[in-house]
Amino acid sequence: MRVLGIDFGTSNTVAMVRSTADARMRPLLFDGSPLLPSALYFNTDGKVLVGRDAERNARLDPARFEPNPKRRIDDGEVFIGDHPMPVPRLFAHVLSQVSIEARRQLGAAPEEVRLTHPARWGERRRSLLIEATRIAGLGTPRLIAEPVGAASYFTAVLGSAVPVGRSLAIYDLGGGTFDATVVRRTQSGFEVLAEDGLPDVGGLDFDHAIIEHLGKTYSDGRREKWEALANPTDASDRRLRRMLYEDVRGAKEMLSRTASTDIHLPSMDIDAHLTREELETLVRPYLERTVSCLSRAIESARLQPKDLVGIFLVGGSSRIPLAAHLIHTELGVAPTTLEQPETVVVEGALCIGAAVTPVRASGMPRTVTPPPQPQRPVPPVQRPTPPVSAVPMSPATHAPVSAAPMSGVPVSPAVQRPPAQPVVQPVVQPQRPVTPPPVARPPVQPPPVQQRPAVQPQPVFRPQPPPVQPQRPGPFPPQTVRPTPPQPDDDGSERNWIAVIVVVLVLVVILFAVLLKTAF
């Protein structure tokens, strides 16, 4: 099924399509942007321009330009130039532009249309919206309250958990109005518990406050030129006024990202400097009213701010950082903000009743990343060292290590990187050296000598090896005692040295005798 969702706003209209075949949502782009200005311009030939084309042609004849049709919901008829036009037909021109783009992207007419509206709109206003949809050729739409669509986005797209019976507050600050709503989660969706609003607070009112500030600051000595901008009387002045309002709106949006900006004042050749602090000073009274309105809506629902799952900020004007700051300060709840709050309502409306959470064509749904939890340090695990049964070998010579370990520090063999195919060496069990018991030799009987008494042999003293002391069990592997090499015979060494000395003396005497003989 091809579903078209439309959020008809005061300043901009947003539309998205969803196909149940691939569960993907795609925003409709108008001149490369998902935001379609809700403005209309009526040419002299009867052709109606919508969106940015209407804004560009508004400089030619501002009397044929309607920038905010939604604000004329209660006017019945609107005069565009010299021609009256009913409000439903005025709305239908904007919705027709959406229908043309949806047919081009889907390849056919949408099978279902979902249209959002403010929660405070009564039956009469909703009937005018339905009539406008039929005139645009979209059939009878399914109407969805804007806070319900925002709450669906909060749960379906952001993945935030709202248990059944819990409540969520929606702070909707758009271009023309402000709406505060408290919704509660039910088994089938969301229901509105309480709602409140301000019809005279929105982004357009912020623009007007900036214009008045510029007039007070830069009109000294240029009173006539400023009056022509503020209250134009001819087409030329109306074009200049339109240019001024466009620059002011762009500067306001820029100050949500930067600390300062410049605004060109046409016909005065002045680049007015405006800072974020000045903007916040101008809009603070309006934003304080919105926070008070939100507090009243929460009280009407018989809840406290701490009882809410969260406060969700939607609408293009909610980008102003001061709005979230005041809510957090006054109510003690940090609100949830988004980078593109204009598309929240229509995207949430398409998620209602979907068996599978739709996925945006540009990627996976955006999710709220929880703050990182501090990680507790994990104490190192002391693993017991298995007893080494093999004789420790030197890594270089593979010979037994005979050095004794240092006191208190176990000696570990050098760690070698295992080869690709390790060869398992047989484990050699250390063997204690076994000293054979001394062999009793019979006394040597010399040959008998006549007329001489038999000589008794003297006992030969041979050093006995020290007794082997049993090793005590300890934390170190048993060490193999290297056998002591045989010591040279001291008597033989002494005889060798005497012989060498004698030879040297003989040579010296011979040499001396030769020298004497030669001399004489």
From TrEMBL:
Pfam families assigned to the protein according to its UniProt record, in alphabetical order: HSP70
Keywords attached to this entry: ATP-binding, Chaperone, Membrane, Nucleotide-binding, Stress response, Transmembrane, Transmembrane helix
Annotated Pro residues bias: 368-389, 433-450, 460-487
Parts of the chain that traverse the membrane: 497-516
Region described as Disordered: 362-492
PROSITE patterns named in the record: HSP70_2
Compositionally biased spans, kind Low complexity: 409-432
Gene3D superfamilies, per database record: 3.30.420.40, Actin, Chain A, domain 4 (3.90.640.10)
Family listed: Belongs to the heat shock protein 70 family.
Protein name per Swiss-Prot or TrEMBL: Hsp70 family protein
